[in-house]
Amino acid sequence: MSPRVLVLLLGVCMLLQYRVEGPQAKSEKGISGSSDDFYGPKTRNKKITPPTKGTKTPVTGHRVSKGTEASQILNTILNNYDHKLRPGIGEKPTVVTVQFSVNSLGPLSTLDMEYTIDIIFYQTWYDERLRYNGTFETLVLNSKVVSQLWIPDTFFRNSKRTQEHTITMPNQMVRIHRDGKVLYTIRMTIDAGCTLHMHRFPMDSHSCPLSFSSFSYPMNEMIYKWEDFKLEINNDNSWKLFQFEFKGMSNKTETLSTPAGDFMVMTFIFNISRQFGYVTFQNYVPSSVTTMLSWVSFWIKKDSAAARTSLGVTSVLTMTTLGTFSRKNFPPVSYVTALDFYLAICFVFCFCALTEFAVLNFLMYNKMKTQASPNLRHSRFRARAQARARAHARKLRKAPVCTIINMEGNDGAGESSHPGSSQRSKPICCKWLKGCKNYFCVIPNCKGSTWQQGHVCIHIYRLDDYSRYFFPLAFFFFNVFYWLVFLYF
Ligand SMILES: *[C@@H]1O[C@H](CO)[C@@H](O)[C@H](O)[C@H]1NC(C)=O
Ligand SMILES: *[C@@H]1O[C@H](CO)[C@@H](O)[C@H](O)[C@H]1NC(C)=O
Ligand SMILES: *[C@@H]1O[C@H](CO)[C@@H](O)[C@H](O)[C@H]1NC(C)=O
C-alpha cells in the first residue's frame, strides 16, 4: 500500500514540476488537470502571478476606460441633481410602478393577529434628470448611490415592525436606464397586522392585506401603478405557514382621504385558509370520543351508582378541560367559534348522559320509598290525590299527553325487588312539579285508570334502553348537520 502511495505522490510532484516549467505547452490538456495546474503554481510561487496579470492588462485597461465613462456619467447626472425634489415637480405627478416578489410568507400569529412576510419590493419611475448618453444601456448600482437619488417615500400602512436587511450590505439596488428610468429594489421583512375573523375556526380562511402608500406625496403628486406581479410559490421549503395554506392573492387600489390630502393606497391581499388536520386531532377527536365514552353508562346496571356516576362526572370534567385547552393559544375573542360550539354540544351530551342516570335513579328511589312505607302518607290525602288525578285525566282525555308508565311486569329486576308493587294503581310522581301530571305519570299498568288511548307509553325502567338509541342517533345527526353547515356554507 504505502510504496504505491509514495510512487503516486512522486508522480504528482513530477507532473507539477513539469507543468510549472512549461505551463503554456500543456495547459489545454485535461479538464481537472488544467484547473489544478492553473491554481497550483500560483499558490506555490507567487512570483508567477504578475505575468498573468500582465497578460490581462488590455482587459483591465478597457475596464478602466469603461469605469471612467461610468463615473463620468454618474458625475454628470448627479452634478446638478437635487435629490430632495421629485422628478417632474410642478409639472405632472410621478408615476411609480410597483412589483413584488415574496420570499416567504408566514408564520401567521393568531394570538397577535399579525403575519410575517419577507418581500423584495420593486419600484420603477422615470426621472428625466438622470438621462445620459453613452455606451451603457443600464447603470447597475448598489445601495451606496441610494442616498444621492430621489426615492419614493413608500411606507407600509399596516406594518407593525419592519426590518431592512443590511448584511452584508444594505439589501438595496438601483438601476438607472439610459432613458431616465430608475428601478429601485429593496428587501425587507414586515410584520403586518391582519384582522382575523375566527367565527368559523377551525374552518376559517383569512385575507391578510399588505397596504402601502406614499407618506408625503398625495395623489396629485405621486401615483402608484401595478405591474404584472408574479409570485413564486415554493410552499415546500421557504413558506412557513404551518397549519395554513396559501390560497391566492389579489390586489386593490383605494383612495384615502386624510387631513394631509388624498393618498393612493395600494393593497395586496393574501388569501390563506386553515388546514384541518392539526385541530382535528387536538380537539374534535378527543371530544367526540369522550362523548361516546359517556354512553357506556347506559350499558351498566342501574344499581351500580358509583360506576355510572364516576363515568358521567369524568366525561363532563374531561369536556371542561378540552374546552379550556382549545382556548389556549387563541386570541381572547368574545364570540363563539365553530369549535367552541362543537365542544359545547359535546359537553351538553355528556351532561345529559349523567343527568339521565340521576333522573332514573331519582324516579326509582322515589317509587321505592312510597311503596316501602305507605303509612308515611296520610291515607285521606292519598285518596284525594288519587281522585284528583283520575278527574284530571278524564278532563285531559284529548290532550297530547306523553305518559310514562312503569310496567313492572316487563322489568325483572324491579319486580323481584318489589313484589308488592303491582297491586298498587297509584300515580307516584307529579307531586314535585305542577302540571307534570299531564306528562309524567308512573303507574304500574298501561291499561290503568289514568292511561289514555293513543298516548306514548314510556316505561321508566326502560330509560336506559331508549338512551342507547337516542344519544348516538342525536349525536350522529348533530355531526351531519354541523359538518354540512361549516364545510359547505
Ligand atoms: C444625448 O445625445 C443627443 C444627441 O445625440 C442630445 O440631443 C442629447 O442632449 C444628449 N443628452 C445628454 C443628456 O447628454
Ligand atoms: C391588479 O394588478 C394588475 C396587474 O397585475 C392590474 O392590471 C390590475 O388593475 C390590479 N387591480 C387593481 C384592482 O388595482
Ligand atoms: C380572497 O378572498 C376574498 C374574500 O374572502 C375574495 O373576495 C377574493 O376573491 C379572494 N381572492 C383569491 C385570489 O382567492
Automatic annotation (TrEMBL):
Neurotransmitter-gated ion-channel transmembrane domain boundaries: 284-483
Molecular function via GO: chloride channel activity; GABA-A receptor activity; transmitter-gated monoatomic ion channel activity
UniProt GO cellular component terms: chloride channel complex; postsynaptic membrane
InterPro entries on file: GABAA/Glycine_rcpt, GABRG-1/4, Neur_chan_lig-bd, Neur_chan_lig-bd_sf, Neur_channel, Neuro-gated_channel_TM_sf, Neuro_actylchol_rec, Neurotrans-gated_channel_TM
Membrane topology listed for this record: Multi-pass membrane protein
Segments forming domain Neurotransmitter-gated ion-channel ligand-binding: 71-275
Record field: catalytic activity: chloride(in) = chloride(out)
Pfam families in the record: Neur_chan_LBD (PF02931), Neur_chan_memb (PF02932)
Transmembrane segments: 341-363, 469-488
PROSITE patterns: NEUROTR_ION_CHANNEL
Subunit structure: Heteropentamer, formed by a combination of alpha (GABRA1-6), beta (GABRB1-3), gamma (GABRG1-3), delta (GABRD), epsilon (GABRE), rho (GABRR1-3), pi (GABRP) and theta (GABRQ) chains, each subunit exhibiting distinct physiological and pharmacological properties.
Family the UniProt entry places it in: Belongs to the ligand-gated ion channel (TC 1.A.9) family. Gamma-aminobutyric acid receptor (TC 1.A.9.5) subfamily. GABRE sub-subfamily.
Protein name (record): Gamma-aminobutyric acid receptor subunit epsilon
Organism listed in the record: Chrysochloris asiatica (Cape golden mole)
Taxonomic classification: Eukaryota, Metazoa, Chordata, Craniata, Vertebrata
